[in-house]
Write a structure and sequence with these properties.
The protein is an all-beta fold. It has one domain. About 0% of the residues lie in helices and about 40% in strands. It is globular. Belongs to the OXR1 family.
Amino acid sequence: MYFIKGNNESLSIGAGDGKFGLWLDGDLYQGRSEPCSTYGNEPLSPQQDFVVKTLECWAFI
């Protein structure tokens, strides 16, 4: 279980039992959302697999 994991191939937020709360591919174009034990969340989109239309990033400096 981890909170955030990323590399050149994907970005994963939340995990457990082989599922990710939020998973994005390396191009940040395709994603998937499933319930995960890290956050105890429900899927974040109506469909498990989706295409990213807009991505907003925040940084605290």
